[in-house]
Structures are given as structure tokens and as C-alpha cells.
Design a protein that fits this description.
The chain is α+β, with helices and mostly antiparallel strands. Helix content is 25%, strand content 22%.
Length: 157
């Protein structure tokens, strides 16, 4: 087996995929699965973080409160936010923080996340990782804000 089992991002969720011949699970020899897990797993909100309107739980793993670098990201906190440049800046901050472990573990020399709003209801994240050998890995993720809002409303009912 070459690498870990791959998680493939599909708009608002990750999923396992099969190889072209359908015989095995797809594997990821690089970092894409690690990036997906880091970005789209919920980090625990801090005591001073404002929760989305329908949320009462701080989500995430409670043990993260005791770690220097908590697991996951706080992107989930933006699910009910208006699409403004200041919110995109927070998305960039949350994504960069979620990937900071890569620098600490020397998997990457640098990590940069850039966010844009390509159309109403969508957040586009461009992640650039500079590997220790100087090569760049560029990954792109689209996040459907409206689907997150609908999910939040469903959970509140």
C-alpha cells in the first residue's frame, strides 16, 4: 500500500473512493488527506469564541483544550456568518492555524491559506504548502456556506 487511505473532498464532505478498477480503496501518498482532515474536522471553540446562532456546544475534542496545537479547525464557527472580507480573513486565519502542525512536525516549511468568495454562498480556500525539499503543493477547496446554514437550521429543529 502506498500512503494512507485517501479522503477526497466533495463540496461539503470528504469521502473514501475506490481505485479506477474498483478493487481497492484509493490511497494518498502525499498530504491532501491530512489537509482535509485538518481543515474540515471541528476544532473545539475557545471560551471566548462566539458560537453560531443555533449552536450551544463548543464541538471538537475536549482534549484539545490541553494541547499546544489543538486538532481540527474553527471554520465551522463561520457557518452562519455573512460573507464579508473580514469573515474571509478569519477563514484564512482558522485554516492556517489548523495546518500549523505541519510546520511544527517539519512536514512543511511554510503553509498559506487564501480565501475568496467566488459567488454568493461559497467560500473558496486555496492552500499552498511548501515542502521541505522546496516543492509546492497547491490544493483548492470549495465550501458551500448555504449548505452549512441549512445543516445548522436542521440541527436546531
Amino acid at each position: 500500500m502506498n500512503g494512507d487511505i485517501a479522503i477526497v473532498w466533495d463540496v461539503n464532505h470528504g469521502e473514501f473512493s475506490l481505485t479506477a478498477d474498483g478493487g481497492d480503496l484509493l490511497t494518498d501518498p502525499g498530504l491532501e488527506t491530512a489537509v482535509i482532515v485538518s481543515l474540515f474536522s471541528d476544532a473545539r471553540a475557545g471560551e471566548h469564541d462566539e458560537l453560531p446562532a443555533t449552536e450551544t456546544e463548543r464541538r471538537g475534542w475536549w482534549g484539545g483544550d490541553f494541547e499546544e496545537t489543538p486538532f481540527g479547525s474553527k471554520l465551522w464557527l463561520l457557518s452562519r456568518e455573512k460573507q464579508m472580507r473580514s469573515v474571509v480573513a478569519r477563514a484564512e486565519e482558522y485554516a492556517t492555524a489548523a495546518l500549523a502542525w505541519m510546520k511544527k512536525d517539519r512536514v512543511a516549511l511554510a503553509v498559506k491559506a487564501t480565501g475568496t468568495i467566488p459567488r454568493p454562498g461559497w467560500l473558496h480556500l486555496q492552500v499552498e504548502i511548501t515542502r521541505p525539499d522546496g516543492r509546492n503543493l497547491n490544493l483548492k477547496y470549495d465550501y458551500n456556506w448555504r449548505a452549512q446554514e441549512a445543516r445548522a437550521i436542521e440541527n436546531a429543529v
